[in-house]
Amino acid sequence: MNIINGKEVSKKTREKVALMVKDFVAEKGRIPCLAVILVGEDPASQTYVKNKIIGCEEVGMKSLSYRLPANSTNDEVAKIIKDLASDSTVDGILIQLPLPKGLDERYLLSLIPDSKDVDGFSPNNLGLLAMNNPRTVSCTPYGVMELLASTGVNLSGKNAVVIGRSNTVGKPMAMLLLNANCTVTVCHSKTQNMAEITKQADILVVAIGKPKFVTEDMVKEGAIVIDVGINRVDGKLVGDVDFENVSKKASFITPVPGGVGPMTISMLLYNTLMCAKYED
């Protein structure tokens, strides 16, 4: 069993992005800029936004932060998005999710231009991914692909199983694996005999939001197991995989924390730079 060190892969990714930003600034004479909108006082969201701002500083990018009260209206949030959308100095726009109740997430996300959609959530960007011609790719699945690449294993022809079908992780994850020439199966809450399917997986990506959902008996000997889940149990962070026992069978596995998490922000920084290049 080999532990995939997300912190180390993330560090190398940020070093590459920093060099690319330096080259971009030298060529274009301006600094790429990411704008982050945070609505409400959710502690986890505040931490994520803080880490994104720190990440921008690390790679030499500019960041703008807009913090609004939880009782903000759709119109108030929309005005900020529209202003940023028309601002040529802003390359990427991110709305920190989840939004407080009463706000229309789908509507507000739709106001972000495809060219500034650093999360890769827009229908057009998801469509381009499905066509294997991506512009920006959802940050967490993109990070997973970088972690898989770090193993040195050739993914082509492998059986891959994704547990979870969200628009933010599961579906783009499946498309990325398909584009990498894997044979892909997506499992979800309505899947029957799930363990029989997961036991066939050479690559198992778990993003279901249930603590230690995947157990040792669900995993093929020698599988690569990527745990996207982050759950707090008894004050500790645990993943969707029973790490202690599954790690005995896996050839490679990500820990929680320290696995997929660090990669999400690194790929966000990369996406911001790519959006800057598209704009220019």
Question: How would you characterize the overall build of this protein?
Answer:
The protein is of the alpha/beta class and 280 residues long. The chain folds into two domains: 29-112, Rossmann fold (3-Layer(aba) Sandwich); 139-261, 3-Layer(aba) Sandwich (Rossmann fold), CATH 3.40.50. Helices cover 41% and strands 16% of the residues. The strands form three sheets. It has a six-stranded parallel β-sheet with strand order 1-11-8-7-5-6. Helix 2 (43-59) crosses helix 10 (261-279), helix 6 (139-150) packs across helix 7 and helix 6 crosses helix 10 (261-279).
List how many beta strands DSSP finds.
11
Total helix count? 10
Beta-strand percent range: 15-25%
| Major sheet attributes | 6 strands, parallel
Series of H and E elements: EHEHEHEHHHEHEHEEEEHEH
Strand numbers in spatial order across the main sheet: 1-11-8-7-5-6
User: What is the end-to-end distance?
Assistant: 45 Å
- Give the CATH class of the largest domain: Alpha Beta
* C-alpha Rg (nearest Å): 19 Å
Q: Give the count of structural domains.
A: 2
Provide mean pLDDT, rounded. 96
Classify the helix fraction into a percent range. 40-55%
- CATH structural fold name of the largest domain: Rossmann fold
Residue stretches low in confidence (pLDDT < 50, at least 5 long) are none
CATH-level-2 architecture of the largest domain: 3-Layer(aba) Sandwich
CATH superfamily of the largest domain: NAD(P)-binding Rossmann-like Domain
